[in-house]
Structures are given as C-alpha cells and as structure tokens.
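Structure representation:
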Amino acid sequence: QVQLVESGGGLVQAGGSLSVSCVPSGSIVSINTMGWYRQAPGKQRELVATITSGGRTNYADSVKGRFTISRDNAKNTVYLQMTSLKPEDTAVYYCNLAFYSHLKYQNYWGNGTLVTVSS
C-alpha cells in the first residue's frame, strides 16, 4: 500500500514564501508523476503543479512564475516552493502520485496540509 506523507504548510502573510514536501512510502514504480493539488473552502480540488520522473513540469496559470515544483528521484520526494503568496492561495494542499503498474493506473493522495495566507 502506497502512502504519501506531506510536511510543511502553515500560516504566512501575503507576499511571503512557504514550502511543502511530500514523501511516498510503499511499492512505487520509478516512472511516475508527482504533483500538488489544492482545495479551498467551498471550491473543487484543482491542479497546482505536476512533475514527471523525467522532470517535465506543468503549472496552473494562477501559480506560474510564483510556485516551483521539484523532485529528488533518489528519495522520491516532491517539493513545492511557493513565493509571492496571495490570500487566494489559501487552501489545503494535497500531494498526488500517479503511475502505471502492470498496465494498471495507480493514483494516490496524501491527507493534505493547510496553507493559510493572511492579508
């Protein structure tokens, strides 16, 4: 069973920076995509950023230029560095891991970590 453990997050003032990280445990295929999604109160979960094991990244337009996703393949750890934070970035941030194993698509979620940006 794969589990994702997130760390980081917290409270920060608008314009500040914060980082979150995610470490998976369990049986993981080395070729995978890891990413961050977020869900604000009363809103649907949305993509923040993803990164493949080959280093290809994808960002939501709302965070481009402010957030940076990176990963350490040796540790299978994914990081999200958030700068120039805005109150509208306030949300629970969820780590996601996706890969194919024996032709079956596997998709896992962390429990989420809260990021609060005060104005």
In short: The chain has a mean pLDDT of 95. The first strand starts at residue 3 and ends at 8.
